[in-house]
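Appendix B. Chain record.
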Amino acid sequence: MSNALVWLNGQLVKQEEAAVSAISPGLLVAMGLFETMAVYEGKVFAFGRHYRRLEQGCERLGFVSPTMDVLEAVMTELLRDNALLHGRARVRITLFEGPLKMETLVQATAVEPSEGASRMLVSPYRRNERGALTGIKATAYAENILALREVRQQGADEVVILNSRDEVCEGGTTNIFCVENDVVLTSPLSSGCLPGVTREIVMELCQDRGMPVREEALSLERLLKSDGVFLTGSLREVQAVESIGERTWGKHSLVDQISGAYQSYVRDYIDGAE
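Structure tokens predicted for this chain:
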């Protein structure tokens, strides 16, 4: 978007004019956190859940986040001034360590909805499920970006990342679920996966609707033998997986039900019914 505005440390500025210090630890060593949120018709979806995760990351890194009220006011202003009050958009909040103090960047951009099923490949890289940054959304994201870049060069759009125990961990930007004998399964947080907001909502929706859902350690073999696979993420929402390598799946009624339940939840949220 030309002339788009961002919010940097209390000031609205044009994105091409936003600048950070060349000696900022956030720039030099990726000492930072971020949250990406979906926006529907000008309303930021599930901000309270995202903010709780941001606070947990701040506690881990010793950061202090701006208050919810401050960030809500900033996001509202950005969405209005960037003409993003209709249709789909996303907001990203980034907290990072500056040379003297914490710095905050908030951005708002338009997005197109994800369409069709996902095609995945398995990354040769492994996630350290016991690492210092495990479970927080840190800006040190190069591992995920590299894994995604490599599979996209091969025609896929998402990647399966395993942990050091060769268990299914997560996607590059998503959590991974599968269906096995009408039971919905996903990797536990001990696998090293991010505690995804959409993951959390989907598990709650399954429980509310009487769909069996469990966290279980999943081998790649078990994932590939499952009856269906789907992804969750703030921007992808609930997306069926068409293939992982040579293994393919058709439509699965339970995945369709979960996707429909999530869409209803989003509509209720937008209408203020949550």
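Further analysis of this model is presented in Appendix C.
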